[in-house]
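Friendly challenge for the regulars: who can give me the structure tokens for this chain first? No prize, just bragging rights.
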Amino acid sequence: MARKWSADVMRRSNALDLEPGVFRLSSPSAIAKSLKRSAEESTRRKGTPFQSAMSMLNFYINRAGKNLSAVDKQKLEQAKDELRREFGRVL
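First reply, four minutes later:
Bragging rights claimed.
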């Protein structure tokens, strides 16, 4: 088993084919749009596009954990709200 199994999951996940550097994009909106595009184009996902996109975002946040700066974590948390808006799931 590889030392960084989570990195392997990000590369070879059956959920989505992500654009390179998606989680390093400059704005939460850009991250959400990229995830939405990937989820809608994927033929390998098991759930809905929204579920797949949100799952991948949560996975990245949870696995990056303490290695994320406060600014990056805040940006990714805001991307969750943007993703909900993109899919029309605003609370």
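The first helix runs from residue 5 to 12. The chain has one domain: 5-86. Your move, everyone else.
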